[in-house]
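ugh ok fine here u go
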Amino acid sequence: MSGLGNITKKEIRELLTPATFIPIIVVALIFATMGTSIQGLQEQSSEPPIIGIITEDNIGYGAMASTLLHKNAKSVFNSTSITDLHNGIEIVRQHEGVAVVIIPKNFTERIMQEQQGTIEVNWIMKGTGLMDSISSGALEVLLSYININLSKQLIEQNTTVNASFALSPTIRVETTSYKNRQFAGLSPNTIAGMLASQSMLIPLVMMMIIIMAGGIVITSMALEKENKTLETLLTLPVKRTSIVTGKIIAAAVIGLILAIIYMMGMQFYFKGFEVSGGVNLATYGLVLTTVDFLWIGISLFLALIAGLSLCMLLGTFAKNYKSAQTLTFPITMLALIPMFITMFADFDTLPLAVKVFTFAIPFSHPMMASRALLFDDYILVIGGIVYVGIFALITISIVVWVFKTDRLLTGTTKLKWIKRLKRQRF
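structure:
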């Protein structure tokens, strides 16, 4: 038992290091911040949708539909004239609402003639993430509820009414406004579904590349220490800057090859999804050009360089192959977190704290690039490229400094001072 206890204590001492626990503590704090922000979004989504209502038909079924809208939604604009539509959209947008609903003047007349009454919905889209479409989904449920109540009313008043008409007495005419573009015939949920097919693969591929390449860099540094090859390398008459530069260039070549393979595959992938759900994306200008692919490639390449440099920095803390396995965890989390953020929320609609945090992670930018470029948001993409480039340079400089301090072999920066004292003594 004493031998077992000694071995257990030895293993615990080797694993119980700041390098093991600090990344986990940081990630726990990050998740706590994200959870608080997402909880706030969920509480906001449970509230009644904020809308504007234009009721041109104030009698019969039109009045009934308008009453249900006022009762189950928060109306910040009310009018009886379609000419007030533009003003209504601006007011609803200022109140961060989701749509302006119009009950046209012939709504009751058409239903009385057993023709579907038209409900016009002018959507105001906030973002393309899954969380961004919750409010619009609530309004869609309300419009379906109005349709059901009108069906009940029709069946109660006229038992001989046409069954197919009674089940669906209304029809929606939808127009969505998003980033100064008009999408006729599409709702926010439809647009978000179309874009999800295009924007989901990029975060997944980016995450896999970072995890695989980052793990290789960290474990290779650990194996060089464990096999004493790094010690031999550092004793050679080669500048530490050259050693770091060589490793970074090798990582850059690997990153470039991965980026090229990735972009070639993505071009074929996007061509396959130019028609999504029966809707031609090119009709609405939602297709990436060759220049857009170039921007995505640059963003991806710089993010890989930044990631591999960060992995090399973490690799300097690895004592052996076993400890290197724990150091891959923070890189994995830094790749996973922006992947989930970009899938569930749009960068423009994130809370400020989460937005700053997402922008600070270099892996986020290629994940956001394709969706941003679809809507000509070049400022976010170019700004992200500049930031990731600066991040990579700073990280590489820190790695060079670590190599110069001999921390890789001694765990301290005092070795050079000891060498100088020995030279002075002799």
